[in-house]
Design brief:
This protein is an alpha/beta fold. The chain has helices at about 1-20, 35-50, 70-80, 95-105, 130-145, 165-185, 200-210, 225-235, 265-275, 300-305, 310-325, and strands at about 25-30, 55-60, 85-90, 110, 120-125, 155-160, 190-195, 215-220, 240-245, 255-260, 285, 295. It folds into 2 domains: about 1-130 and about 265-285, Response regulator (Rossmann fold, 3-Layer(aba) Sandwich), CATH 3.40.50.2300; about 130-260 and about 295-325, Rossmann fold, CATH 3.40.50.2300. The protein is about 45% helix and about 20% strand. The chain binds riboflavin.
């Protein structure tokens, strides 16, 4: 019995060591990298780790925009049996990962921008997008009521979203509204649903209509379709505030702010922890500003140029109160 136990232990240690020495990482992108920084940055984080880890390998697949195909594509990706860890991201993936996990009970998964507890092979990390929304809404409300060039007295902010989903309805939109209404309770969000994450021509059309109907700022959360919103903001001299990534360079005069997710770092660190045997599989974590995974880019030169100092001081105060724990946002169940 004892000899058996020692032998088993040796096998376990050896396989852990092998795994750690030459980890094979699969990255499953539910969409496309191009134009969606949340996916591109996830892949970059995994690629950075692999480049620093001798013997490690990586395969990144883009599953495309037909969501009806994702489950099957994920299952065949896993079925290839090539990966020690499969990394993916978005709030709809935990459910698909859970299904795939039933068929391949040894496969380990990391799901970012999602929440799943109770599957011992899945680690997930959800961003506190109430915080991200709040800062975004707060800045937008301050600028919209400032009287500065390009703004109007209407208490209206526009939003273009790829589609509706629980994280959008329960965190992102309520967070933005709360931030806006901290400035003036009369603020309304005019939300247009694109129906996909790529149609830039339709996003341009929606942007024109939003600006024409009194929105002075649009918040695009619509993947690569945001190019249409950028074009129209530049044509009309109106404003945008971005989520997810540093987008200032795309329209330095029209982008007022970016409240970003450190998705590359989250991908890198969670994979590294998994390889080192330190990632708490089975757990779901919530990360936000305090943990350093959500950041408002308050030092960017375009932000400093476009937004008056009196507003920047107020935004900094809100950032501080979230970081210090004075202002908190409880994440609802999704
Ligand atoms: N965000 C993107 O930037 N590009 C996408 O292609 C994309 N596809 C999504 C598909 C589904 C089913 C869901 C639920 C969300 C998707 N998102 C996408 C949104 C993303 O998860 C995140 O909520 C936003 O990027 C805001 O941080």
């Amino acid at each position: 019995m004892r000899r058996f136990m020692i032998a088993s232990l040796v096998v376990i240690l050896a396989s852990t060591a092998l795994w750690a020495q030459a980890p094979r990482i699969g990255v499953f992108i539910p969409g496309a990298r191009d134009g969606s920084p949340i996916y591109d940055n996830m892949a970059k984080g995994a690629e950075r780790l692999v480049s620093e880890t001798p013997g490690a390998s990586i395969k990144v697949i883009e599953a495309g925009f037909n969501q009806a195909e994702w489950q099957e594509k994920l299952i065949s990706f896993v079925a290839s049996g090539k990966f020690n860890i499969v990394l993916t991201s978005n709030p709809s993936m935990p459910e698909l990962v859970n299904e795939a996990s039933k068929l391949f009970p040894k496969q380990k998964f990391i799901c970012l921008d999602g929440y799943l507890i109770g599957n011992s092979n899945v680690y997930s990390a959800l961003y506190n997008q109430l915080e991200q929304g709040y800062i975004t809404g707060y800045l937008s409300g301050l600028v919209s009521t400032s009287g500065m060039k390009g703004t109007n007295p209407e208490k209206k902010i526009g939003m273009i979203i790829g589609q509706n989903y629980p994280a959008m309805e329960k965190m992102i939109i309520p967070g933005i509204l709360k931030g806006l209404r901290a400035i003036d309770p009369a603020f309304q969000l005019d939300i247009r649903v694109l129906g996909n994450w790529f149609d830039a021509a339709k996003a341009a059309e929606l942007s024109r209509s939003l600006y024409a109907q009194g929105a002075d700022i649009i918040l695009p959360i619509c993947g690569s379709a945001s190019q249409g919103a950028v074009r129209v903001a530049q044509e009309t001299g109106k404003y945008l505030v971005f989520f997810d990534d540093d987008e200032f360079a795309r329209a330095p005069d029209n982008i007022l702010g970016c409240t970003i997710l450190h998705q590359e770092e989250l991908a890198y660190r969670s994979l590294k922890a998994a390889i080192e045997g330190k990632l708490p599989f089975g757990k779901a974590e919530i990360v936000g500003m305090k943990e350093g995974y959500i950041e408002f880019l308050n030092k960017n030169p375009s932000y400093i140029k476009n937004v008056p100092e009196s507003i920047r001081i107020k935004v900094d105060a809100v950032i501080q109160s979230i970081k210090s724990g004075q202002l908190t946002f409880a994440v609802p169940s999704l």
